[in-house]
Amino acid sequence: TDLGLLPTFSTWAHVTMLHMYLIVVRLRCLDPDTQQAWQAQLVNHFFYHAEAKMEDVHELTSRMIRQTYLKDLFVQWRGLILAYDEGIVKGDAVLASAVWRNLFKARDDIDVRALAAVVAWMRAGLKQLSELTDEEVEMRAADVFADLREQFPVVDLPTAPMKTALAQAGISPT
Q: Which ranges carry the Ubiquinol-cytochrome c chaperone domain (predicted)?
């Protein structure tokens, strides 16, 4: 509700994939065999859970239809990895664009403050994960995810260049 997202299967999937993405980024620091094993298990569990949710919650009893949706979801997962990786490398504007396309479904009516909070939350999560030892990542990676609402005060603070631009425009930051 804080982000204005509808409570749909797609929202659940993309919020979950956002968490998975951050963990996968940290797993890349492990040796290749360990990283591949952990990532495969993480992704497999997600897709098993997604299929169960389709059947139990959304009453999709046709295995063929579920498999079609799961294939689409896998394509989204792969695209999301590329888009978020590009954003992590190229900067917050590119990352925000990727989050807007994936999590917010490229809607025109989103709250940009919420979008900025997600980007700040992602950066904070990556920082916290980077501070864990490899052993801690394996045992408690999910524990580092702070409440997204904690990022709103962060995105509400104008940066020095923004303060200058506001002052030049005769606007007082509130």
A: 2-137
